[in-house]
Specification:
The protein is an alpha+beta fold and 773 residues long. Helix content is 31%, strand content 21%. It contains 19 helices and 31 strands. It has a 9-stranded antiparallel sheet with strand order 15-16-17-18-29-25-24-22-23. Strands 13, 14, 19, 26, 27 and 28 form a 6-stranded antiparallel sheet that branches. A 4-stranded antiparallel sheet has the order 1-2-3-12, with no helix packed on it. A hairpin with a 5-residue loop joins strand 22 and strand 23 (374-376).
């Protein structure tokens, strides 16, 4: 077997296995362990009762009276707008149930939902009534708002672009019809307002915006998952009381307190265009809890600056003591939930701690004074193995990090030396994923337990947080700093892992090319030409080397036949032959090693850079290749493929789309391989070439779900390589001339055929050479 080809085959095999481990790690499923009896209550989980259904009091913990009176009505309120002209970067919907964030939608057209391509008119948060679905909120700047839809309207019918008015009786029926529409279409709604006669309203639909936070049940339905029975879907930034009188609350009391504060409807104390204040009273403890949310628009002169720090909500927590004596109180605040699960069937996120493994699609990140960013993978959180952090350390920020977006709480402290919190935790939201769901999909959040604060009689304690909710754009993140310290900015959330410097360099070059051509597909081709052009001297020598190797194939076969039983002599003879003809048998492996960092760096650059997300090759109007950071999604085959293929899990989980670019890539790989490999002269060579072809096809299976931008790089690189081999005919001609020369010193002693002066010398040396052989 050709030693060089065998070594190349081994290197290719190892590269495929290593690359697949780095880029496509299998979901890790921790061992099931029984939850301890005193396990922490998960956010939004119902209170645990005894066998008789009554909460059990704790030994040694005073019983606290929790109000049981009826709450006010459920309300939805908004801050911001989807209209970019208003200066807002997001539309945030709040609910008075738990005084929490229900969803946060991005206003920029650069951040649209990647999966839902149906028409969007706004999230109306319907309430089913006997007359039909009733509108409970209308977001400013949404198509519904522009069409004149009002809170309290009852929708009784929807008429698509083509067809008759379809009567709807429930919100589910309405969404079933609406899901068949498309952006830029105009539909008709039949509504009843204030009990009057039905009227028709025209609504111009748009493409659905990306929601950085939303109800997790929508993420489950997006991937056609099964909603667990009794599923609890808590909103973001819930709070409860963790300590009164300097003593932690007992388990049962904590759960009743959570039910009152997290599941109850808070009163809306004040509301204006830029802020909402919620209030909740604990009469028995003579405490009043206040949560105030504020969202400011971007100044008019900075609205064209995409890196202006306008992607945050100001959250203020206030605890007021209404008693006549001092009280020690500590609250507990949960973080954001329901971050994007987009790309669930192809996306991979890099772990900071697992060398050959990936992280979840949503992980908890935290940074403390004097320490680097800590990442808690959702696989660890799902199994309740994430250790509490922050003991005797000052917190800079903590939050949930997704692939392209994050939501992070930054305490507004005058100095990083201020230590506000007793414990900082990474916790799971809701139940563990079932056996069919990868742990990488786990919904996670952070939890902050405040140090107890002594409140004077009639006094209060206020803590303020800047809550970043937005894209992971480096220049934007750099402006969100803890205690105004640039060394503790959110820019550290962007992590490239291995070959990070290569990834950053390639991104810089890619963005520079894009600034000239305005198309990232063309910029990737230009980057390929730059890389291959820089490697041309090496690849030229590789081509010459391969041509010489092919020309010497008969001599190598003769050496192999002659020294079948003596491996050492055969190796020595081959090395001598390579040395005489100035051939490096491992020379063809160098480009593989040089291109591996480029390949991994480009893959991770495409996977992380927010500028490449939702960037089309041609136009976003075309579904195919409409996102260079995702597979090209040529055809939706989910309607006939089995679930094991559509769910994207495992090597056979190809996803719900047929992708054509990976197939083109592998086809070009095979063509290039065929051009570079000599015709097999024995059965071993035939077997070797078949194995290399099978390995290439197997590599195509592993890389089937890579970003279409990476496929464009490989396609352009393969075409370059094929053209290079076609054009380098001179190297091939030199190699053919080598095969006509006898094996031996190719010096001036050997004359051309027909030269009588040196012909006798050649005939005299021939027998000697033969005897030596």
């Amino acid at each position: 077997m050709d030693k060089r080809n065998f070594i190349a085959f081994l290197i290719l095999s190892m590269a495929v296995l290593v690359a697949s481990s780095l880029l496509f790690p299998p979901p890790e499923r921790p061992q099931e362990v029984p939850a301890p009896a005193d396990a922490e209550q998960q956010p939004g989980a119902p209170p645990a009762d005894d066998a008789d259904g009554a909460p059990q009091p704790e030994q040694g913990v005073p019983e606290l009276a929790i109000p049981v009176e009826a709450d006010g009505p459920l309300e939805y309120l908004t801050l911001g707008s989807l209209d970019r002209e208003t200066g807002y970067r997001m539309l945030v919907t709040f609910t008075n149930r738990g005084a929490a964030v229900h969803r946060a939608e991005m206003t920029s057209p650069r951040f649209r939902d990647l999966h839902d391509r149906s028409g969007y008119l706004g999230h109306l948060e319907f309430e089913d009534t006997p007359a039909g679905p009733k509108v409970r909120v209308v977001g400013p700047g949404t198509p519904a708002d522009k069409a004149g839809i009002k809170v309290g309207d009852v929708v009784t019918g929807i008429q698509p672009v083509r067809g008759d008015m379809v009567a709807v009786r429930t919100a589910e029926e309405f969404h079933a019809v609406r899901s068949k529409t498309s952006p830029r279409q105009e539909i008709m709604l039949q509504v009843i307002r204030d009990g009057g006669a039905p009227q028709t309203v025209a609504v111009k639909l748009v493409r659905r915006p990306l929601e950085v936070m939303r109800p997790e049940i929508e993420n489950i339905r997006m991937r056609d998952g099964t909603v667990p029975e009794g599923f609890v879907d808590p909103p973001s930034f819930l709070m409860t009381i963790a300590n009164i009188g300097g003593r932690p609350l007992g388990e049962a009391t904590t759960k009743r307190m959570e039910a009152w504060l997290s599941e109850g409807n808070w009163a809306v104390a004040t509301r204006d265009q830029r802020s909402i204040t919620f209030e909740r009273l604990l009469p028995a403890q003579k405490l009043a809890l206040v949560k105030r949310f504020t969202l400011e628009p971007v100044p008019a002169g900075s609205r064209d600056n995409e890196n202006y720090p306008g992607y945050h909500v100001q959250l203020e927590i206030e605890v007021r003591n209404a008693s006549d004596s001092p009280q020690m109180v500590a609250y507990r605040l949960d973080g954001p939930t329901g971050l994007p699960l987009e790309g669930w069937w192809y996306a991979h996120k890099i772990s900071r701690h697992r060398w050959l493994g990936g992280a979840g699609l949503r992980d908890v990140v935290a940074r403390f004074q004097g320490r680097a960013v800590q990442q808690f993978d959702c696989m660890t959180i799902a199994d309740d193995k994430a250790e509490p952090m922050g003991h005797d350390q000052s917190l800079a920020y903590v939050g949930v990090d997704a692939v392209y977006f994050s939501s992070v709480l930054i305490p507004d402290k005058r100095s990083l030396d201020e230590d506000w919190f007793d414990i900082t935790e990474a916790v799971r939201v809701g139940p563990k994923p079932d056996a069919r769901t990868p742990f990488t999909y786990t919904n996670v959040t952070c939890r902050l337990t405040r140090d107890p604060v002594e409140l004077a009689a009639g006094g209060s304690q206020r803590d303020s947080y800047r809550v970043f909710i937005g894209p992971k754009r480096p220049e934007l993140l750099a402006q969100y700093q803890a205690a105004n310290d640039p060394n503790y900015s959110l820019r550290d959330l962007i992590y490239f892992g291995w070959f990070g410097s290569v990834a950053r360099a390639m991104l810089w070059v890619l963005h520079w090319f894009y600034s000239f051509v305005g198309n990232y597909g063309i910029a990737i081709v230009m980057l390929t030409v730059l890389v291959r052009g820089a490697m041309f001297p090496i690849s030229f020598k590789q081509t010459q080397n391969m041509a010489r190797m092919q020309a010497l194939k008969p001599e190598l076969d003769r050496i192999s036949d002659k020294y079948k039983g003596d491996m050492q002599k055969r190796s020595q003879a081959m090395q001598e032959l390579y040395r005489k003809h100035q051939i490096n048998p491992l020379g063809g492996c160098l480009p593989l090693f040089l291109q591996l960092p480029i390949f991994i760096g480009l893959y991770r650059a495409l996977m992380i850079d927010i500028e490449l997300r939702q960037t089309p090759l041609f136009s976003e109007m075309i579904r195919w290749c409409s996102d260079l950071s995702a597979p090209d999604m040529f055809y939706d085959w989910s309607w006939f493929m089995p679930r094991m293929v559509n769910d994207g899990i495992g090597i056979l989980g190809l996803g719900p789309y047929f992708n054509v670019l990976p197939i083109v890539t592998i086809a070009l790989f095979l063509v290039s391989m065929k051009m570079s490999m000599p015709e097999p002269t024995n059965e071993q060579a035939v077997l070797q070439q078949k194995m290399m072809k099978y390995m290439t096809v197997f590599m195509g299976l592993l890389f089937y779900k890579v970003a279409s931008g990476l496929c464009i790089y490989f396609i352009a690189s393969s075409i370059w390589g094929i053209g290079e081999r076609k054009m380098l005919t001179r190297a091939k001609g030199d190699a053919d001339s080598l095969s006509a020369k006898p094996v031996g010193p190719p010096a001036r002693d050997v004359a051309p055929a027909g030269d009588g002066r040196n012909g006798s010398t050649g005939r005299k040396k021939g027998p000697k050479a033969k005897r030596k052989r």
